[in-house]
Write a structure and sequence with these properties.
Layout: H1 4-8, E1 28-36, E2 40-48, E3 51-57, E4 68-78, E5 86-88, E6 96-108, H2 115-128, E7 130-137, E8 141-148, E9 156-161, H3 185-190, H4 209-213, E10 218-219, E11 230-233, E12 243-247, E13 252-259, E14 262-267, H5 278-285, E15 291-298, H6 308-312, E16 322-331, E17 334-335, H7 341-352, E18 358-360, H8 367-377, E19 381-386, E20 396-404, E21 407-417, E22 427-434, E23 437-446, H9 453-462, E24 464-465, E25 482-485, E26 490-495, E27 497-498, E28 504-505, E29 508-513
Parallel strand pairs: 11-20, 16-18, 23-29
Antiparallel strand pairs: 1-2, 1-6, 2-3, 3-4, 4-9, 5-6, 6-7, 7-8, 8-9, 10-17, 12-19, 13-14, 13-15, 15-16, 16-17, 19-20, 21-22, 21-25, 21-26, 22-23, 24-25, 26-29, 27-28
Length: 532
């Protein structure tokens, strides 16, 4: 649920703390609460789909279009939290004084008549990481935008004023009184009748972190090796409240074992990749505690999109590289695999704490909006994970589902066809294992770089055998001379669609080799339908 994170941090038994509330049917509202906690900041909250999407803005909003304010995305808050101002006592989560610095209504820049349609547009903008709104407050008026900034961490955004008649150079934060009570932060802190409430999450000075792990985690030694949990390939995305949704990263799957200053990064098939990624292993050593993490190593291009080709060419020094971590399996003597993934993700978020190299892989409730945005940006796809799912080693079931935007899959090369032209070869023949038997599935004639083809052919010739490694007949060779190889090389291919007989329709496109996977682990993955 959208408010799960908020409710996990707070107690509702004996306090006037807001827990929900219903929005109006007419207009979207916003509130900016000035909050003097451990650091003075402004909480910028927008009503979207019944909750308050919230950002903490350390320096507060500006009316100067040339000024960009850092805005850190925090958990959604209940709708009636917009009315809260008062005192949060010491020793509680967010301890300090809160006033309603500004409030009012807002709307999308584009003219949209229905509130429901406006919220749909706002959620699409939110997942895109670029929102633009028109504010009608007592202090904040006109166009404002929120833009995600990847270079500062996944939760970092920028709040900016648009150029319009409400823009100006004066410091709007000097208007420091509540638009409801007329009190400043100081005045509210001295008010004897100010509302007070408790939360069930302690401040950083109290030992609260261990509490999240020990009650439900099972005490055990650090595992020596974990076989990664796998995803089931689906024909179409499944949109269901039982699932949370994540980006399908285009990288190398890595399980990391952190034991003090000792770090080991294993590929999916158990190969030690630690020395390949010095920036990542160094960042893992700096984490507090002992743990086992699951994620993907990713190189992003200049547009901020995953670039698998750049990852393959990673030189260890010049190219920025990141570890997109989506799960934590063991921590400080406790096995967490039987906890629901929503709980494991919360523990993981605290462990990474905004790390810029070790990126926390965010989850989203609105899978449909995320999938549309992934399609628009040309990303690899999405992963759906049941919110109550445990981590089951080597399982491929309905708990985790993957839906690519393009049909991409790993296959094992079993041969090549000679070219009658100047090219090193005409096409590669590939297949996958089905119940232990190596079956031919298709061929690939495109996607190769001319300068790299002689090197590929050299690899193939080193593995050449006389007999076909496929248990079934190879079709569609178009009369070319065919050579066979030991099924050891794994490669990524993109293709149009499957035939009714389980073959690849038309030639596939070669995307690159996968040195992180064993050939025997590449099984036939025919997409299945899953009931929503």
């Amino acid at each position: 649920m959208a408010l799960d994170k908020y409710k996990q941090k707070r107690s509702f038994k004996n306090t006037p703390e807001p827990t929900g509330g219903k929005p109006s049917k007419e207009k979207l509202v916003f509130v900016v609460q000035k909050h003097d906690a451990s650091h003075l900041h402004y909480d910028f909250r927008l009503e979207i789909r019944g909750v308050l999407k919230s950002w903490a803005v350390p320096k507060g909003p500006s009316t100067d279009p040339s000024v960009k304010r850092l805005a850190m995305l925090v958990e959604d808050h209940p709708f009636d939290y917009r009315n809260f101002e008062g005192i949060i006592p010491e020793g509680n989560y967010g301890a300090g004084t809160v006033i309603i610095w500004d409030q009012g209504t807002y709307e999308t820049v584009e003219k949209i008549a229905r509130k429901k349609d406006m919220e749909r547009s706002l959620m699409a903008q939110f997942h895109k990481g670029a929102m633009k709104i028109v504010m009608h407050g007592k202090k904040l008026k006109g166009i404002y935008s929120l833009a995600k900034t990847a270079d500062r961490g996944d939760n970092s955004w920028l709040l900016m004023k648009g150029k319009d008649e409400y823009a100006g150079k004066s410091d709007i934060t000097k208007k420091d009184k509540s638009v409801v009570s007329g009190l400043s932060i100081t005045g509210m802190s001295r008010k004897k009748t100010a509302r007070q409430w408790q939360s069930n999450r302690k401040t950083a000075a109290a030992p609260a972190k261990k509490k999240a792990v020990t009650p439900q985690g099972r005490k055990s030694a650090m595992p020596k090796r974990v076989a990664p949990m796998l995803c089931t390939l689906t024909k179409e995305p499944v949109f269901n409240d039982q699932y949370l949704y994540e980006l399908k990263w285009d990288g190398y799957r890595i399980i990391s074992y952190i034991n003090g200053t000792k770090v080991r990064m294993d590929s999916r098939n158990g190969l030690d990749y630690t020395k390949r990624y010095p920036p990542l292993s160094n960042a893992l050593k700096e984490l507090s505690g002992k743990m086992v993490l699951d994620g993907e190593v990713v190189v992003f291009n200049e547009k901020g999109l995953p670039d698998f080709d750049a990852l393959q060419k990673y030189n260890g020094h010049k190219t920025p590289i990141h570890y997109c971590v989506f799960d934590i399996l063991w921590k400080d003597g406790y096995n967490l695999m039987k906890l629901p993934i929503v709980e494991r993700k919360e523990i993981l978020r605290e462990v990474l704490n905004g790390n810029e190299i070790l990126k926390f892989s965010e989850s989203f409730d609105d899978g449909e909006a995320l999938y549309k945005e992934v399609l628009r940006m040309g990303l690899e796809g999405i992963v759906a994970k049941k919110k109550d799912s445990p981590y089951v080693e080597n399982e491929r079931a309905d708990n985790w589902l993957k839906t690519p935007t393009h049909k991409r899959q790993e296959f094992v090369i079993g041969g090549w066809a000679e070219s009658d032209k100047a090219r090193s070869f005409k096409s590669l023949l590939f297949g996958a294992y089905n119940k232990g038997k190596f079956e031919w599935i298709g061929r690939s004639g495109g996607g190769y770089k001319e300068k790299e083809m002689p090197g590929i052919l050299k690899k193939l010739k080193a593995l050449e055998v006389e007999k076909s490694p496929f248990v079934n007949k190879v079709l569609d060779t178009q009369g070319a001379v065919v050579h066979y190889v030991k099924p050891q090389l794994v490669a990524n291919f993109e293709f149009a669609t499957w035939t009714s007989t389980g073959r690849i329709r038309k030639p596939a496109t070669f995307l690159g080799f996968r040195n992180d996977k064993k050939a025997k682990d590449v099984v036939r993955e025919v997409p299945k339908g899953v009931k929503p």
